[in-house]
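Sequence, structure tokens reproduced for reference:
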Amino acid sequence: MLSRATKVIAAFAGLLSVTACSILGSTAAPEPDYSVNLAEPPFELRDYGELVVVKTAVNDGSRAAFGRLFDYISGANSGAREIAMTAPVLNADTAKGAKIAMTVPVLQTQEGSREMIFVLPDTLTLDSAPAPTDPRVSLARIPPRRVAVVRYSGSMSNRASAEETRLRDWMTSKELTPTGPAEVAGYNPPWTLPSYRRNEVLIPVKKD
């Protein structure tokens, strides 16, 4: 049986072989649908529909938190059945114990108790998504919401605070009222060149 570390390395190697252009910022992973209400690059005002997510606390480091979520989508869920990564099973009848396709972005909250979040494919609901086997991992629903967004490249974490300040200044200029803490979103695998990375800070705002 392959070790968890071997599976992680194999997964990244497989993804790299499928999409070598990810080094330059492209990614084949799907992302949630949204509509853009206002675009003033690098800022946007977006509306998202309901999202089903899997999350874990980042109290023992980002790498450990990412590992727990990666384990969940790799089969550490009810049923614990191994399924080839190249053929994820997403329908309700076979989702238990299945490998789940990873989507982007990976989110981290910026305030209070930090959490890392994977957005699950839109083919899964809170009822049909398999239950995590790790008690530190949980499923959740994010209701439809409007968010203000700023996009940036380079290091996701090192620039997050400065980009959040910049986003809040833009929100003030547009008279947008925040309704929750900031989140940092990463869209690219770790081997992507920093200047080609897509990172975002998102802040939920009050709808008109």
Remarks:
- The two ends are 54 Å apart (CA to CA).
